[in-house]
Amino acid sequence: MSSIKYSYRGKFNPHCLEPTNIDRLSTSLVPPNSRLLELGCSTGFMSQYFTSQKNCQVTGVELNPAAAKKARLHCHRVITADLNQPATFTKLQRLQPFDVIFASAIIEHLLHPQQFLHHLYQLLTPDGLLIITFPNVAHWRQRLHLLTGNWDYQAYGILDSTHLKFFTYFTAQTLILSSGFAIQSIHVDPAGGIKFLDPLFKPFPNLYAHQFVIHAQKSP
Known about the structure:
- By secondary structure, the protein is of the alpha/beta class.
- It is built from 9 helices and 7 strands.
- It has a 7-stranded mixed sheet with strand order 3-2-1-4-5-7-6, with helices on both faces.
C-alpha cells in the first residue's frame, strides 16, 4: 500500500479550504476530545490539527518511515506499518478501543477492503465512529473518458496507479453497511466541476461526486 501522496505547505487549516473540499468535510466530522486512530497519517499534518484544535489523542499508522518520523511530533504514538498486513491489526488490538477511526485516501489502496473494515469494527468502542473517504470512479469526467475509450492510470487522482480497488457512491455504502456499520451521513466533494451545471448534477451524487466521505457508527 502506498503512503499518502499529498501534504499541505505550512500548517494544515481546513477552514481555509473550500467548504466542499474533502479534507475540510472529513476533518469537521471528528468529535473533540476523541481517542482517534488516524490511518495513513503521513507527516502528521492532520494529526497536528486534531491534537491542537480538537484536543484528540491521536494514534497514527503510516507506511513510510520518513513520514512516520515527522508524524511522531504531532501524535501520541505512531506505528510504522502496512495496513495490508494482518500483523498491523494485531499491534492495534493492544491499543484499542478507539472512539474514532479516520481513514482518508486509504481504502482504495488495500487488497481486501471488507476484511480491513471488519478489523476496524473490532477496534472501536461500542458506539465508535468511522470517518472514511472514497474516490468515485463513476464521476462524470471519468465516464466521459471511458466513453471515449480512455482508462489511463495517473500519478494522482481517481485512476491513481497505486489504486487497487474502485468504488462508486453506491458500492461504497454497500461495503460499509455489510461490515456492520450504520451510516450517519455522506458528504460530497465535486472537485471543482462546471459551476453552472452544479444544480443539474447535485441530485445525482453518483455522477456529481469526485470524492465523498462516509460518516458511520458501529452497530451493536
